[in-house]
């Protein structure tokens, strides 16, 4: 913590603040400048927020935290990149960029198994598919729920793909974690703190999607919620944010990939399907995401988008997905990575 004194602060006021810092169990370290004095409070990071009360002391202008509030998710305590293992051949955060692909929602055994084979053959390593769907309208398809989880497992057993699927409520966390290899927290639940704490208590990787109206800082604080419960296996997923733009469903914030590289050691995935909302824009944004340094890409693929029960307009048909995978390999190779 840094305590910035007002430019006219008296010697006595400075000494009082130094004493107060000592009384709170920290060591004051003062820098006496020509204009003003700045006092650093050195000591145990935990509980340092208490020092904020010094803002009410005479002569103090501001109290500024110098360490980031996301201590576990941030880079101050851990510099090296975290690699999160999903299965024997899938890890996020290493040299290989992994592609998570599949339909928006699980619709039937035939549908999920056919799409799983298609995306596996094209090079995806994780199958996505919602069993519980967060929908804007209560009248829209809400997912096959528990049956959807079972169908995902069948598709996984047939193809060898790992499974990523969303959990929407605390009471379903254990069940979803039993079936899924990656438990997804959707954009609408990024700040559902009880749900974050619940997935923080399981031993499964969590894909934390960015809240559609959340800042990167808020997103990292949500990762911190999960990690503070003991689960360090958090993968962040940029999926677009709300802006004034109407040509796309969301505005895919690719700059987040770059910001996160500086702010966190956690792997980052980009979802250009929800990020753009239109299949026509998905490939370009996926390529750009790999070029920007994403550790993974999440793409919605459907064998018959016209008939899809949700998000058909942003889903790639198998042929386009295969073509995209070929292009992604070239971009990955250009930056020294594989897919
Ligand atoms: C999804 O990936 O199925 C989904 C609902 O995404 P988001 O939470 O980003 O809207
Ligand atoms: Mn979707």
How does this structure look, described?
The chain is α/β, with parallel strands linked by helices. The chain folds into 2 domains: 63 residues, Phospho-2-dehydro-3-deoxyheptonate aldolase, domain 1 (Alpha-Beta Plaits), CATH 3.30.70; 251 residues, TIM Barrel. 33% of the residues lie in helices and 18% in strands. It is built from 10 helices and 14 strands. Strands 7-8-9-10-11-12-13-14 form an 8-stranded parallel beta barrel, surrounded by 6 helices. A 4-stranded antiparallel sheet has the order 2-3-1-4, with helices on one face. A two-stranded antiparallel ribbon has the order 5-6. A hairpin with a 2-residue loop joins strand 5 and strand 6. The protein binds phosphoenolpyruvate and manganese (II) ion. The site of manganese (II) ion has 5 residues, from loops.
Short descriptors:
four-stranded antiparallel sheet; TIM Barrel; binds phosphoenolpyruvate; binds manganese (II) ion; alpha/beta; 339 residues; 10 helices; single chain; elongated; eight-stranded parallel β-barrel
